[in-house]
Amino acid sequence: SGKPFAEAKYHKKLSNAEKSSYIIALLVTNSSKGNPWWEEICSVAMAAQNMLLVAAAHQIGAYWSSGAVQDSGKPGSSSSSGGEDWEPRLVQNPPGTRSFLGLDDKDDQETKTICLGWIFV
Fold this sequence. Notes:
Number of strands: 5
Largest sheet: 3 strands, antiparallel
Shape: flat
Order of helices and strands: HEHEEHEHHE
């Protein structure tokens, strides 16, 4: 059920967060407009890339760090590999991340909001 905890990686991420002026959470919510889930994810990814391009154009240091994700699909199944029948409810953020962002379990099941990562500025 995920990778073992890496103490050194944790301290590096904590150090980078403390050095940042701003940290922007990249959240994606499957809208009620009927757009495919993958389109919603791609839209947030493109917006993040545009933010990084603007930062670079203004000579501001910024980077995108992926968010912690738990895959509750079964290994080897199409659900865990992003196959045709992949459902967003199978990818979840860890409880600590969800709590920090104010997302509860009800939100995850009904609106399918997940954190794709963070932009550190």
